[in-house]
């Protein structure tokens, strides 16, 4: 067992017999957990010494201060100098695909989410300077797509293609709660500025809002299911971010707009089954930015009253959340842009595309400061 594999040894058979004779009692932590999730973290191989071809950049994060950028690679995270595009170091022995990255408040730890699509997901904390994995917080039944710290660094959130959203204590890695309320991939997670809420976006076209400490569902935002003028509804949501205001969120995905909304008002508009007719008559409180991209929005970052969005059409744009207007467009990528991060204090924006290219931008004037392929070995050859 399994078929065509090596037969069980005599001691293994004896162990099974003894367990059955004792009543075959379950002694795991969770009766509802899948067998895969009980097997623990996997041991990952080292990354290739040199890349034959660049891998898609699906995640990146600017270190506090903006001098370095961490970029997801193949079984590793690579770290690059943002001024020169020079490789600084490599953080290895990580999951095959790195899908999400986030720094803690002082940049000493890097939260890494990834795995193997359809097979395995992992959430880990890595020592950014030393490169060692300090702790694997959890494993998932599918790849981890989104991660984030609460602003005070005391809580960690993750969302996975296995449809779960989870929250952990950063101090010891304890899982505080896990919910599987979405019917499709959880594509984004974000804590509210007042630490009250956690939001999770999904391909199922909704954003769920939870009480952050307990995991209790507060409400569901359904704005991406609605028609907006000439634009059709029924759009998957690929990212959600809370603003610096205590209870204001931004979300985007397929569709021609970035939506700005408030959980409290969203719950009021949802109402109950008793007021269904009145509910359909209510006008949504949400505000909208018509972003002008030709394709879906994959990346979304909100910092300092500005929203930065990245699209499958290769464009990146900056918007003013108060004025609901475009501030600047960042053009130059020739492939889908999946990842971006901004560091307002340093006036830096980093973007990463499917073709492996990373670009560093000056947010004061839109100038491109550095361009490089985030592929050790390969990058050196093309210089």
Folded structure, characterized:
By secondary structure, the protein is mainly β. The protein has one domain (56-382): YVTN repeat-like/Quinoprotein amine dehydrogenase (Methylamine Dehydrogenase, Chain H), CATH 2.130.10.10. 8% of the residues lie in helices and 44% in strands. It has four helices and 27 strands. A hairpin with a 5-residue loop joins strand 6 and strand 7. The longest helix has 12 residues, at 10-21.
Topology summary:
Layout: H1 10-21, E1 60-62, E2 68-72, E3 74-81, E4 87-103, E5 109-116, E6 120-127, E7 133-140, E8 144-149, E9 155-160, E10 165-169, E11 175-179, E12 186-191, E13 197-202, E14 207-211, E15 217-221, E16 237-242, E17 249-253, E18 257-261, H2 263-270, H3 276-281, E19 287-290, E20 297-303, E21 306-311, E22 316-320, E23 325-330, E24 337-343, E25 348-353, E26 357-362, E27 368-373, H4 378-382
Antiparallel strand pairs: 1-2, 2-3, 3-4, 4-5, 5-6, 6-7, 8-9, 9-10, 10-11, 12-13, 13-14, 14-15, 16-17, 17-18, 18-19, 20-21, 21-22, 22-23, 24-25, 25-26, 26-27
Features:
globular, Methylamine Dehydrogenase, Chain H, 27 strands, 383 residues, four-stranded antiparallel beta sheet, single chain, mainly beta, seven-stranded antiparallel beta sheet
Q: N- to C-terminal separation?
A: 52 Å
Q: What is the number of helical segments per DSSP (H or I, 4+ residues)?
A: 4
What is the top-level CATH class? Mainly Beta
Radius of gyration: 22 Å
- The 3D shape can be described as globular
CATH superfamily: YVTN repeat-like/Quinoprotein amine dehydrogenase
CATH topology: Methylamine Dehydrogenase, Chain H
* Overall tally of domains: 1
Biggest sheet architecture: 7 strands, antiparallel
Return the average pLDDT rounded to an integer: 92
Helix content: under 10%
Q: Tell me the strand percentage band.
A: 35-45%
Contiguous uncertain segments of 5+ residues: none
């Amino acid at each position: 067992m399994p078929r065509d594999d090596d037969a069980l040894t005599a001691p293994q058979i004896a162990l099974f017999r003894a367990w059955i004779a004792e009543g075959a009692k379950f002694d795991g932590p969770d009766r509802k957990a899948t067998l895969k999730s009980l097997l623990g973290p996997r041991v990952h191989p080292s990354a290739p010494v040199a890349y034959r071809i660049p891998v898609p950049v699906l995640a990146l994060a600017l270190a506090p201060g903006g001098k370095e950028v961490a970029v997801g690679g193949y079984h590793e995270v690579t770290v690059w100098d943002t001024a020169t595009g020079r490789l600084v170091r490599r953080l290895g022995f990580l999951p095959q695909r790195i899908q999400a990255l986030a720094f803690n408040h002082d940049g000493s730890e890097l939260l890494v989410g990834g795995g193997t699509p359809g097979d395995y997901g992992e959430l880990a904390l890595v020592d950014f300077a030393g490169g060692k994995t300090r702790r694997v917080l959890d494993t998932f039944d599918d790849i981890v797509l989104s991660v984030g710290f609460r602003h005070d660094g005391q809580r960690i959130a993750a969302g996975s293609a296995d449809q779960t959203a989870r929250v952990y204590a950063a101090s010891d890695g304890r899982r505080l709660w896990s919910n599987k309320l979405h019917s499709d991939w959880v594509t984004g997670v974000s804590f509210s500025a007042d630490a009250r809420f956690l939001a999770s976006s999904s391909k199922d076209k909704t954003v769920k809002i939870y009480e952050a400490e307990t995991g209790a569902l507060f409400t569901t935002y359904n704005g991406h299911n609605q028609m907006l003028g000439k634009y059709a509804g029924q759009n998957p949501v690929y990212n959600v971010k809370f603003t610096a205001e205590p209870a204001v969120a931004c979300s985007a995905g397929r569709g021609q707009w970035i939506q700005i909304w408030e959980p409290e008002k969203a719950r009021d508009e949802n109402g109950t089954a008793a007021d269904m007719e009145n509910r359909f008559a209510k006008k949504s409180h949400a505000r909208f930015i018509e972003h002008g991209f030709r394709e879906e929005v994959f990346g979304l970052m909100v910092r300092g009253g500005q929203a930065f969005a990245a699209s499958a059409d290769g464009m990146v744009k900056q918007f003013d959340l108060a004025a609901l207007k475009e501030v600047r467009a960042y053009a130059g990528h020739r492939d889908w842009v999946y990842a971006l991060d901004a560091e307002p204090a340093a006036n830096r924006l980093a973007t990463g595309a499917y073709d492996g290219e990373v670009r560093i931008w000056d947010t004061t004037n839109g100038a491109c400061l550095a361009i490089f392929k985030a592929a050790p070995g390969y990058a050196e050859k093309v210089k």
